[in-house]
Amino acid sequence: MPKTDFGPPKYTEMLPPVIKNNYGKWKYHETVKPGVLKHVAESGDVLYTVRVGSPRLLSIDTIRDICDIADKYCDGYLRFTSRNNIEFLLTDESKIDALIEEVEKLGFPVGGTRDTPAGKYALSNIVHTQGWVHCHTPATDASGPVKAIMDELFEYFKEMKLPALCRIALACCANMCGAVHASDIAIVGIHRTPPRVNDDVVRRTCELPSTAASCPTAAIRIKAKEKTVVVDEEKCMYCGNCYTMCPGLPLFDPENDGVAIMIAGKVSNARHPPVLSKVVVPWLPNNPPRWPEVVDVIKKILETWAANARKHERIAEWIERIGWEKFFELTGLEFTHHLIDDYRITPYFYSSYRTTTQFRW
Amino acid sequence: MSETPLLDELEKGPWPSFVKEMKRAAEKNDMAKDALRLLERSYKDKITHWKHGGLVAVVGYGAGVIGRYCDLPEEYPGVAHFHTMRVNQPSGWFYTTEALRKICDIWEKYGSGLTNMHGSTGDIILLGTTTDNLQPCFDELAEAGFDLGGSGSAFRTPSCCVGPARCEWACFDTLDLCYNLTMEYQMELHRPMWPYKFKVKISGCPNDCVAAIARSDFAIIGTWRDEIKIDQDAVREYAKNGMDIKSEVVDLCPTKCIEWDGNELKIDNKNCVRCMHCINKMPKALRPGDDRGATILIGGKAPMLEGAVLGWVLVPFIKIEPPYDEIKEILENLWDWWDEEGKFRERVAELIWRKGMREALKVLGMKADPRMVKEPRNNPFMFFEKEELR
Predict the structure, then answer these.
(1) In whole angstroms, how far apart are CA B15 and each of A58, A78, A148, A162?
(2) How far off is chain B from A289, nearest CA to CA, in Å?
(3) Cβ pair B51:A136 closer than 8 A
(4) pTM above 0.80, yes or no
(5) If you measure CA to CA, which chain A residue comes closest to B235?
(6) B156 to B84, B129, B385: CA distances (angstroms)
(7) Is the preceding peptide bond at B118 cis, omega within 30 degrees of 0?
């Protein structure tokens, strides 16, 4: 019997000496230049971090190249961030420029940082899901649209010229493994047509009561005699939850699947409490390989915000100040009936629960 | 003529290309080659070509491997099965190159050579291998000290922010708590036995760098209760260097509890809600206080099924110290209740909505606190216990 349940390596084995020596004793940090952070410890020790954007999907040979650089400049230590950036950790300031040159030669950009004291912010990496690369329920690809968007917004990653933080995220279906629903800008894969019942597959592979119960709008009715289900197309909102439960209910549609754009969410408690994103574009087509319609809308939203927001004002805060009608006017996006909520179930009492760590003692 | 004309378009442009990565792996691996060809097919057809997974696992585990099969196995035999292995990352995603190279070597031997660093939940994702390779791959990963992460209706791999390893604002040791909970709940992590998934994420301060409030059923977010520490000289230094403290700090404080007279910064800490803005703005001058701990928020999740949820306050303040028994007691009581009462595929938020906070607080032995709500209810229809009646 092989060993089991031994857990991950202990983090202490992975920390460079400067971190071990100053663990929990950091005094302050500053941003030296775009992509480079300097952390100063109570002891006076200094740690430099070089932040590097990555496509998240990495081949082992590229990881080895990254390791070579970390061996050469960082005594063999590095980390990744919650937004799929790579961070090189080093103590010798004189090595920073050579490291940057080598990383960029590999094709990986240095950037994605912010200088809050100066009020200058770069765009960080987009967090995203698997999409067509490896997922069985996506309504769009993930890596492709992200690559196309980041190509277009590249300058904002490299330079710190946005007025505040802007977190972009993409989820290829409403299951949202990427949990994009509290992002400044979110791209969400959606379906627009009901599942097509494959009676044979339903009979062979699906449990009928749990399939019917999986529908949030009660659109699925069991046909007990035929051992299958019917979908009420008037009630279906194409969430795809039934397909997750039952492979006999596919709802993929090359021409009608696509993405919705949601904005003005945030998770940080800074200034404004955390808030969920809202839909501002109901649907854009899947237009591979570069999703030009999606890229255009994202760029328009980002640049309209950047041109009109005050310092430190995230999209949610900006729109709270100017009003949604002004947002639609400034961006030229069309406000349609789709954007008015008619999803029946989020309980009304939840709106009075406190969803922030902001309180008084 | 290229076999992948559509994907080739995504090799262009300044942002690093995942297509280049897939091609690089495809040069020496047939699984990666067919994964690339199949993706081109999806780009042409505008739909996915991956099917629902069957049950695949390694000996002794019910989680950590995601079964994945392609729907065109004859045309793309290299990805007829192409399972994902989720490998539990070290806290804070710190690595030695030695450890990373070991993973690469093992994945070169047994898998496609494609990875995600990292998946959304935080695991190292080893993308694509055959059913036969799963066990030997796991055995070598185990030898190298790497275990599998969670999947299915299990405790999902916890993740945490960089915390005290490199951040002056960490209000507790996020890396250690993350490691400790992961080790304590190996059984729950590796053997799905609950109504649905359960995610824990840990952020050291209210900036919430791992988005715990949105992405976890149980968000542990650092905070403090006493006074923000001020270095007045450093404040004056910021002012001297051109920072407009009035407009960028004082005016942006959500509770207007800061005053600045050009010489001294005064904070009315009784009215501070610890949002972090002033501290973010002046890291050399301001720091969280000393009475540090965390807020626990419950219920965060994506829109499926009953709509998107930001976690709401369950425990306004809790001290976070090893061996973390208090947190574990809350988790275990919550799981017992959810396991007993939760419906199939009902997240903990949805259970609480169905049963009421009243019931949740009773089960957890907690008292209601005004910090749990934005405002009291606006209707007079309340449940009363028999004991409360006269």
Answers:
(1) 13, 21, 8, 19
(2) 6
(3) yes
(4) yes
(5) A117
(6) 15, 22, 36
(7) yes
